[in-house]
Design a protein that fits this description.
The chain has 4 helices and 9 strands; from the N terminus they run βαββββαββαβαβ. The chain is an alpha+beta fold.
Amino acid sequence: MFIPFEKMPKNGRVWIYQANRELSLKESAFAIQESESFCEQWAAHGHQLNCSCQLTHNRFLVLAVDESIELPSGCSIDSSVHLVRHLEKSLGIDFFDRTNIPFLKDGDVFIEPLPDIRTKIQQGTITSETLTFNNLVPTISAFENSWMVPAKDTWLKKYFS
């Protein structure tokens, strides 16, 4: 059952999928519509999941589940991956390329390929204070409080010594 994201419990589990490019307004509307429809029927072992979704920065799809009601199963998690694959195919985007590192500067998200990170730091494009995204946060609370962090507080800190 779809629950508005802001009404989900803070300990709800999240999965964050990062698109390789910004979605247009039309594409964003499509992605949200498809994701909300998916949430309306998302189930584990025949039990409806209380879940939500949102698209942030027209680039990050966030799926959330209230695990206190029902735990998602392997099959239900696989079905969510099928949703994301459907969105990829429909929109001509890639949500699974982990070699593109997202940053936020002046309110805009920009992506740097992993091999270019060191050069971008040397050029000053990325500083120790440049915000980056930790797409591996496990809960809504962590998403709200520590999804965006300064580069110096991530694995990137090794480049700032």
